[in-house]
Structures are given as structure tokens and as C-alpha cells.
Design goal:
Helix content is 42%, strand content 20%. The protein is of the alpha/beta class. The strands form four sheets. Strands 5-8-2-1-11-13-14-12 form an eight-stranded mixed beta sheet, sandwiched between helices. A two-stranded antiparallel sheet has the order 3-4. The longest helix has 24 residues. The radius of gyration is 20 Å and the shape is globular.
């Protein structure tokens, strides 16, 4: 008799969950049946999501991104956002007539440039916070002026105020997450003299993911993922196959540092790093909550 009661209660729980899921999930996202399978997978584990590229400048993509983050938060996942802002920074510098020089894809950051960079990233950071609030998702800002978590050293003198993280303060992230808020992190850090430095957003996200031993690092960009020599998406690669792709010049240019950064993260305590296409509808939800995933998953090679 007790057993039937128990199974009835259990079914009731499932029904409630299903009703809740219907309310929370977008109709053009992964199906409820698929989502149910993945609800347990990332239980209590950190998911670091780095967003850059078009997601940050295209209003429609930005709105979908914000909705997806709030969906994850409502489902009880722990998303941690690290955002870039390259295009916005370039626009602002152009507006002010400050010329940008790049060395190997990294912006040379002079004294007057870092002030603009910091201002643009902090402004943008609060826009993300506001947008999440409109989706009934509370979040907390992390930048060089407020809740700073990154201690940096200068990367090299040529690049100016570009920093490499040496320390990440995990306790600040933990505290925000314990309050069921989403940490929203600008890629800025301070050196020992409290001077602000710009950090490459991929590098920042990678350092944070390693420090907090995230289950996943998702890098959203304007590419489908890693493509083979026939320009077809490679769904999964490991440290071994990456070396071949670079040697055979299938992976070239700016994709090499991106992939090497992903590889470093995958070999240092993060189970999987994924490069996904932020231009695709609900790409984050499809990556985490569907069978086919999206983009390219990068894992450590184990023989």
C-alpha cells in the first residue's frame, strides 16, 4: 500500500516538473523529454560560459543568450558568465579618435586605452545584469572596481595594460552562487598596485574554469566550432587530434590560440570545453540539454 502511494507521489513530482519545464523552456529549444534526461547531469556543478562576438552586438542574439542563461538558472544549474566586449571597445575608441594597434590578435592597451576599456566593459557588465533582471534572474557584477576576483601580472611590455591572471578568488564566486545569483564577470583584473588590466576574455574564462573546477567551459563565438579540411564540423576532438589538425594546417590563424587555451583548460580539471556558435538559436541550451549538442567538444586524450 505504501509503495503505491510512493509511486503516485513520484509521478506527481514528475508531472509538476513537467509543468514547470513547460513554463520555463522556450518552444524552439530542446524538447522536454531531452531536457529531463540532462537535469541531473550538471547537478551542483559550475558551468562557465564565455560570450563574445555577435552575441554581444546583435540585439536579437543577445536577448536569446540572456533568456537561455535565465532558463539555466531557473532549472537549478549554476551558470557563470564571462563576457568580452572587443567590438564595443573598438567602436568607443574609434568614436574618441584613439587608434587601436594589434599584435598577434591582441589589442595593445595604452594608458588612455585601458581607461576606455575598463569603462566600456563595466558599462556592458551592468547591461547584462539589467537584462537578466528583466528575465527574473538575479545576478551579481564582478569587475575591477567591484568584487574583483582576478589578480594579474603584465603579459608583456609591448602590449601595455594587458594582463595574465595569476590568482582567482574563488570564494567571491562561491558566495554569489550560494545566494542563487549568476556571477557576471568582466575580463578585467588588478595588479598588486591596484592598476586595472584588460584580460583576453577566453584566457579569463579559462583561468576561472580551472580554478573553480567547472564541469564545462562553453566558449560562444562566431564560428560553428572546429571544422575539418572539408569545412565540416568536427563534433569532438582530443589533445591528440588537435595536434594533427594544427600540424596539417587545418586549424590556422586566430583559431590556434583559442584551441590551445581550450586544450589547456581540458587538461587541467575541466571535464569538457566546447566551442559553440553563438549565432545559432538557443545554442547554449542545445549544447547542455540535448542529445546532439552543438559545436565542438574538446577533451583530454586518454590512451
Amino acid at each position: 500500500h505504501n509503495e503505491t502511494n510512493y509511486s503516485q507521489n513520484n509521478n506527481l513530482m514528475l508531472e509538476i516538473k513537467e509543468e514547470e519545464l513547460k513554463k520555463v523552456l522556450p518552444s524552439d529549444g530542446p524538447s522536454i523529454d531531452e531536457v529531463k534526461k540532462y537535469l541531473e547531469k550538471y547537478n551542483d556543478e559550475y558551468i562557465v560560459i564565455k560570450c563574445g562576438g555577435s552575441v554581444l552586438v546583435d540585439n536579437k542574439l543577445f536577448d536569446i543568450f540572456i533568456k537561455d542563461i535565465s532558463v539555466l538558472n531557473k532549472l537549478g544549474f549554476i551558470p557563470i558568465i564571462v563576457h568580452g566586449g572587443g567590438k564595443r571597445i573598438s567602436n568607443k575608441l574609434n568614436e574618441l579618435g584613439i587608434k587601436s594597434n594589434f599584435i598577434k590578435g591582441l589589442r595593445v592597451t595604452e594608458k588612455e586605452t585601458i581607461e576606455v576599456v575598463e569603462q566600456v566593459l563595466i558599462e556592458f557588465n551592468s547591461e547584462i545584469i539589467e537584462a537578466l533582471k528583466e528575465q527574473q534572474c538575479t545576478s551579481q557584477t564582478i569587475n575591477s572596481r567591484e568584487n574583483n576576483i582576478m589578480t594579474v601580472v603584465q603579459e608583456n611590455t609591448e602590449l601595455g595594460f594587458v594582463g595574465t591572471p595569476t590568482e582567482i578568488n574563488k570564494s567571491i564566486i562561491d558566495k554569489i552562487v550560494d545566494e542563487k545569483k549568476v556571477p557576471v564577470i568582466a575580463p578585467l583584473g588588478l595588479d598588486e598596485n591596484n592598476q586595472a588590466y584588460n584580460i583576453n576574455a577566453d584566457t579569463a574564462a579559462g583561468s576561472i574554469a580551472k580554478k573553480i573546477e567547472a564541469r564545462r567551459l562553453i566558449i560562444m563565438s562566431d564560428v560553428e566550432g572546429v571544422l575539418d579540411s572539408n569545412k565540416k564540423l568536427i563534433p569532438e576532438i582530443n589533445s591528440q587530434s588537435i595536434k594533427d589538425l594544427i600540424n596539417d594546417e587545418v586549424v590556422t590563424g586566430g583559431m590556434i590560440p583559442k584551441i590551445n587555451n581550450c586544450l589547456d583548460v581540458a587538461c587541467n580539471g575541466v571535464k569538457g570545453v566546447v566551442i559553440i556558435d553563438g549565432r545559432k538559436n538557443h545554442s547554449i541550451l542545445f549544447e547542455l540539454l540535448s542529445d546532439k549538442g552543438s559545436g565542438t567538444l574538446i577533451r583530454q586524450w586518454k590512451n
